[in-house]
Structure formats: structure tokens, C-alpha cells
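Journal club side-thread
Mid-discussion, someone asked how the predicted structure for our own chain would compare to the paper's figures. Pasting it here so we can look after the session.
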Amino acid sequence: MITFLKKIKQFLLIVQDRLIRFKNAPLKFIGHFIYWINLVLVKLIYKKNNENIPNLGSDYCKINQISINEDFINEIQNDIKLDKDIFYLDKSFKYYLSLNKKNLDKKKAMFYDDNFKYTWGYNRLKYIEFLKKNFEDDLKKIYHGANYRVENILLYRTKNFNKFQENRNTKYHSDNDVPGSIKILIYLCDVDQYNGPFCYYSNSKKENVVVHGKIGNSIIFDNNNLMHSGSATINKDRLALTFTIVPSLRKKIIYLENKPENIIMTYNCFTKYS
């Protein structure tokens, strides 16, 4: 009887939490719910040995070293200089997890302009091809053969803080991204203790792990579960590229060259467009 009452209490607490989330951010709540349905369907269709999809978890952090040629680095350097706004959508049911123009400008002024060189307006398609070339096999294993869609691509330079030792970048956190999402972070410069190495907390080792690496060092992780952080950029900048990826039931995804700059996720995760 006591166990039954505990389960009832836990259920009511979950319901209460969901109602609060819906009240505070109804569009975000609905969007996450749609992605949760997508994840459930992917699990049912691509179920394998009762493993999780994505096949990662709160202690998973896979580190690879990929080759990036000089021409691609030069393209990246040109893209990082763009610093131009592209079109944005104030109201649209096609997208969610977006910022209106006022909040976008405020976020840039308070966060990106101070800490980051955040780039818009580059061609997404070449980065999608780069991802497929280097990570296709890993992503198919993670999603048990299901296809995937790239929702968000970020190219940015984390600025240094002139020998400040404390971390002025992100604190340890897990992301509140859509169900099933993973992230890939790629170093586009050599990263050591002086320019913001990626850090995460290992549950198995019970310690913080700092990831140093050369250009092309890549990190695949479950951003919703792994506790992670960008550490202090003491006296050197860090240039990085990140992808946010979700599983898809679509066999083929058609990627748009540009996305509105205030968009994080597509509302309809069942569409063939991204």
C-alpha cells in the first residue's frame, strides 16, 4: 500500500511539473511533446536489443579526431567574418523555440557580443555535407539505423578574457533540448587549458573530465543528460562548430541553405525539410 501511494505521489508531482511547464512556455511544451512522439515512434520501429535511442546516456562522451583540410578551414575563417543578420520570423507555426527581434537583439548584446563572435548567414549545406562525411556511421549507430535531421548549426568564436582564471562562460548544465537530441562539438583550432576546453562530469569516474585536442577533435554527447560546460578562455580564443541532431522517420531530409537567425528548432519534426 505504501509503495502504491508513493507511485501515486510521484505521478502527481510529474503532472504538476508538466502543467507548470505548459503554463510558463506553452509553445515550447507542445514542441517538446511532438518530438517526444517522434522519438517513441523511432524507438518502436528501430528497437534493437532493448537499448536506448539515442544509444548514449548521462555518462556518454565519444571523442574522435577527424581530418579537416586547409581549404575548409579557410572557408570557416571567411564565414566567421560574415557577422551579418539574415531574415528572421516573428510569428510562424513552422518553427518554435524562437526569439522575437527584441529578445534576439537583447541576447546578442548581453551574451554573444560580450562572450562570443556568433556568425549568421553562411551556407548550411556545406556544413551538412561535412557532417555526413565525418559522422554518418556514428549517427546511424546511435539511432539504431534510423535517419536523422540536423536542426541547429552554430559556428562561433569564444573570446578570451585576458588572463581571467575564473570561468565566465557556461556553468555545468544539461540542455533542455527536444527528446532524442544529441550534439556534436568540433574544435576548429587547437584547444588546451587556456582557451575553453569542453568539460563534462563522468558518473562512472566521479570526476570532471577536461577535453583538450587539436583541430578536428570532435565530441559526441547526449546534451540532455550529460552534465557539461565550456571552461574558461583565459588568454586565447576558441573557434568551434556544433550540430544539434534528432532522429527522423524520414528516409530523406531536404536541407534549406539558410534558416531564420532566431530559430532553434523546426516545429514539425515529421516534415522532410530542415
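Post-session note: Helices lie at 2-24, 26-45, 70-80, 101-115, 124-142.
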